[in-house]
Design brief:
GO biological process, one term: isoleucine biosynthetic process
InterPro entries: D_Ser_am_lyase (IPR011780), Ser/Thr_Dehydratase (IPR050147), Ser/Thr_deHydtase_PyrdxlP-BS (IPR000634), TrpB-like_PALP (IPR001926), TrpB-like_PALP_sf (IPR036052)
CATH architecture of the largest domain: 3-Layer(aba) Sandwich
Family: Belongs to the serine/threonine dehydratase family. DsdA subfamily.
Keywords: Lyase, Pyridoxal phosphate
CATH class of the largest domain: Alpha Beta
Number of helices: 20
Structural class: alpha/beta
Organism: Vibrio cyclitrophicus
Helix content: 40-55%
Number of domains: 2
Amino acid sequence: MTELNIDKLISHFPLLQQVIALEEVVWFNPNVTTLERGLPYVGLGEQDIHDASLRLQRFAPYLAKAFPETHVTNGIIESELIDIPAMKLALETHYQQPIKGRLMMKKDSHLPISGSIKARGGIYEVLTHAEKLAIEAGLLCESDDYSKLLEPEFRNFFQQYSIAVGSTGNLGMSIGIMSAKLGFTVSVHMSADARAWKKSKLREHGVNVVEYQQDYGVAVEKGRKEAEQDPRCFFIDDENSQTLFLGYSVAGERLKQQFELQGIVVNEQHPLFVYLPCGVGGGPGGVAFGLKMAFGDHVHCIFAEPTHSPCMLLGVHSGLHDEIAVQDLGIDNLTAADGLAVGRASGFVGRAMERLLDGYYTLTDEHMYQLLSELNQAEGIQLEPSALAGMPGVIHVEQNSEYLARLQIDESTLANATHLVWATGGGMVPKEEMAAYLEKLSV
């Protein structure tokens, strides 16, 4: 990696002055292109998503029995899609800005098993690995009823193997809970910002939690090195995993089905804008890929990051991707949005998706806490701070006339738009922890 000349970088990209000053910024990507032109850079396609969907269907009978909370959906891990009209009014008041389209929320915050968006990718990668091992050992065929995985012989088999991951919290929760349930020995390497209650919950499930005083990047690196010492240890790489990415991508087709059931149309006259909180990028990147495959050029995906951890904005805007970290600009990567506390973005996701993502914006921790309180008051929905990052996206879109003109979206088309806030976590936050979040504004 070449040494960075920060002064030269700032002269080329003046927006970075505001980023360094920890100001809230908005950047709509001028290089965004059509799905047809952008897709070759991803290296994955419709068949890959279809294969992931089939794998999840194969595991559904097992999940329905292993996790009773998934029984109601027959073992399919999926979240609710809701309107949030009271929050729409609250946002209009907060920002003194009318919102012309429809405002909705995807409650990945309340996904079963681990209560966050990471239940999609994390659980999927563990299942993919377990299936591969069991098939190679002659214990499982794709035509089997996968509920047989509950039998003791499978638990005994998986106990010979281990799984490791580095995490700020939610990915570790999904991988730890799922791996332990199957019988794997699992270690979750957790960064300094990981919440104590998440560590406790993992330990309750028999997971080995390794704690670090450093940030996410160190936890990942240490986890990777430990896994390299053991040929039977599988390291789940949040920074580079196509399997994780595909687990998230299944959300696109499922959302399309939910829209059809609710009679929501997405086309040139009825655009869809989706606002996704972003940490390292795997979760929002995979979901955005699935959305683009499901809705084509009529969906516009926008990433939201904390002012103290704007790694994807920095990587894509500068074109340096994972060759630059926020710390290189003197930014501390300290945020209350623990799931988003990542200093260096995924090079895989940044390079794969940069032509298919419409924009990026940042917001302060205080801003997230304020929105957390407003959502609780308006809709009675409680999320963790990072999950509120997507909430101001609709305001940024409707205020940016240059961006809308580039999309050739006029006032009447905007009135037909659906704005979808992707709520990423909070469903398993303990009551006392949530009370502490809500009290932040009264200080």
